[in-house]
TrEMBL record, chain B:
Single annotated GO MF: transmembrane transporter activity
First-listed, main subcellular location of the protein, grouped into a coarse class: membrane
Gene responsible for this protein: ftsE
Family: Belongs to the ABC transporter superfamily.
Species for this entry: Pontibacillus chungwhensis BH030062
Protein name: Cell division ATP-binding protein FtsE
Keywords from the UniProt entry: ATP-binding, Cell cycle, Cell division, Cell membrane, Membrane, Nucleotide-binding, Transport
Gene Ontology terms: biological process: cell division
The protein's assembly and partners: Homodimer. Forms a membrane-associated complex with FtsX.
InterPro entries listed in its UniProt record: AAA+_ATPase, ABC_transporter-like_ATP-bd, ABC_transporter-like_CS, ABC_transpr_LolD-like, Cell_div_FtsE, P-loop_NTPase
Function: Part of the ABC transporter FtsEX involved in cellular division.
Length: 311, 228
């Protein structure tokens, strides 16, 4: 009978609900039972997440700027002034055949003149003289799927018949794109490094608290506790440590971002430098920090308890 | 029913602790394991709940063969055997009540049953009034009574005690022995490694003497047989 019972436990590995509750309670109790060790662990999480938070906010903004710049990259194909209607249609068809392009817009010389006059404002009126005899070219505006392809596509289009000139702000774009590409890699690398350091710091701190409890873990096993029964409260404890440790960084990052956003936005007046609005970004940032905090807490704690479970 | 056939234990460093031991213990027996220090008493009883793993022969408890048992099934074995240690092995940060309840929490017992059974065993060892204290606030004898309560709260068929009175003064030891006798009277097998000549010679039971890794004597209502 006793063996049957033991077997039925073995088969039914699904934890009972009250046991889940028990693990959560135990994990929570450990937070205050460990006193200063808890403070130390939370401190380690807080410090690293502060850095991560500031860094992620900067990175997201840099990324946003890079995206803006990249989206602005367009190839302007100036059609020969002498080109006939069917020549223009031929060019259009050939451009459409290029697989890398994402959009193609035709802008007639009349439209070009209109927009030119608009950008000139009041001074634009003097251009009205040209409405009868428009000196501008018809223009195709081409965008590529990946901004990196801009150069090749532009070179290709330049070889077409009846194409007068192809412009895309050559060197500037090339340098800018290279810069944004490397900036992204470096940013991702640095964030990964920070998270890794945090995991290391925290698992070390938690290891100290668990080493102090290694004797208890041994006793629990002798009384018949399975590894997972012992591990779950540590899992919960690690998660709580991580979440508690992320609260201050979230508050500080949000506060600082709110301040920077509201004070700096008006002072920066470049067209492509645009700070991401507080509203969606702040909450995403808070979620990211919370998730990273919980993850490193759980990871550090579960990794440290592992070696004491072999009794 | 515990059966050992040709059981040997050799440690990785080459020291042989047990040598082809044969032993059979019926359900409900009370057995002392005696012998000089280092003779293999602790190894012998430790094998019964798989703290020690035999390197040869076979051990079965109530039909379960321990040497074939998988690592992750060991916790389940330990739930069916109560173990009492010389150093009590109580969880220092839990109260007396929580220490005993832990053995029931691991088998996912209902809170209602946990409460009822913990209070029952606390009554048996006469410690109801200390339920909310932590182990450090208790005397050695009281701590050992808590550990006995934890060992029997599951109603195991077998209780194994490794020198349970080793750290206690004589008077407290007798108190502990009365509890073991009470447990045994309810049909539980009790196996106790001990150094106490007084206890063995006064409370007459089956005596198994171990020397140099072999059983040299096995008598019912036996004597301690060594100078104390």
């Amino acid at each position: 009978m006793v063996e049957l019972y033991a077997m039925s436990i073995e088969v039914n590995t699904v934890m009972k609900l009250r046991t889940v509750g028990r693990h959560i309670r135990e994990g929570g109790k450990n937070i205050y039972r460990n006193g200063w060790m808890t403070v130390a662990s939370i401190g380690a999480v807080t410090t690293t997440l502060l850095l991560v938070g500031i860094f992620v906010a900067l990175m997201l903004n840099l990324n946003q700027m890079a995206n803006n710049v990249e989206e602005d990259v367009e190839i302007r194909v100036l059609v020969d002034l002498t080109a006939q209607e069917e020549d223009i249609q031929k060019i259009e068809a050939k451009i459409r055949d290029i697989t890398e392009i994402s959009s193609l817009q035709f802008s007639s010389k009349e439209k070009e003149l209109e927009s030119l006059m608009e950008t000139m404002g009041e001074d634009g009126d003097q251009w009205e003289l040209f409405e009868q005899d428009n000196p501008l070219n018809d223009v195709f505006v081409v965008k590529t799927e990946d901004p990196i392809d801009t150069f090749d596509v532009a070179d290709e289009i330049a070889t077409f018949d009846n194409v007068d000139e192809v412009t895309y702000g050559q060197q500037v774009v090339e340098k800018l794109l290279k810069f944004t590409k490397y900036a992204r890699y470096i940013g991702i690398g640095l964030i990964a490094g920070l998270v890794f350091t945090a995991i290391f710091l925290i698992s070390n701190t938690i290891k100290l608290t668990i080493t102090a409890r290694s004797k208890e873990i041994g006793i629990m096993k002798l009384v018949g506790a399975t590894n997972s029964f012992i591990r779950w409260p540590f899992f919960i404890e690690g998660m709580l440590l991580g979440i508690l440790g992320s609260l201050i960084p979230i508050g500080v990052t949000l506060g600082a971002y709110y301040y920077v956003y509201n004070n700096l936005r008006e002072k920066i007046n470049f067209s492509f430098v645009e700070i991401i609005p507080f509203d969606p970004l702040a909450w995403q940032l808070a979620l990211i920090l919370l998730a990273i905090g919980a993850f490193i807490g759980v990871w550090g704690s579960v990794m440290s308890v592992r070696k004491f479970l072999k009794v | 029913m515990i059966e050992m056939k040709d059981v040997s234990k050799t440690y990785p460093n080459g020291v042989s602790a047990l040598n082809e031991v044969n032993l059979s213990i019926e359900q409900g027996e009370f057995v002392y394991v005696v012998g000089p220090s280092g003779a293999g008493k602790s190894t012998l009883v430790g094998m019964m709940y798989r703290e020690e793993k035999a390197t040869g022969g076979s051990i079965s408890i109530n039909g379960v063969y321990l040497n074939k048992m998988k690592e992750r099934k060991i916790p389940h074995l330990r739930r069916d055997i109560g173990v009492v240690y010389q150093d009590f092995k109580l969880l220092p940060r839990l109260t007396v009540y929580e220490n005993i309840a832990f053995a029931l929490e691991v088998i996912e017992e209902t809170p209602k049953n946990i409460r009822r059974r913990v209070m029952e065993v606390l009554d048996l060892v006469n410690l109801k009034h200390k339920a909310r204290h932590i182990p450090d606030e208790l005397s050695g004898g009281e701590q050992q009574r808590v550990s006995i309560a934890r060992a029997i709260v599951n109603h195991p068929k077998t209780v194994i005690a490794d020198e349970p009175t080793g750290n206690l003064d004589p008077e407290t030891s007798w108190e502990i022995m009365r509890i073991f006798e009470e447990i045994n009277a309810r049909g539980t097998t009790v196996i106790m490694a001990t150094h106490s000549k007084d206890i063995v010679n006064t409370m007459k039971k089956r005596v198994i003497a171990v020397e140099n890794g072999r059983i040299v004597r096995d008598e019912h209502r036996g004597e301690y047989g060594y100078e104390a």
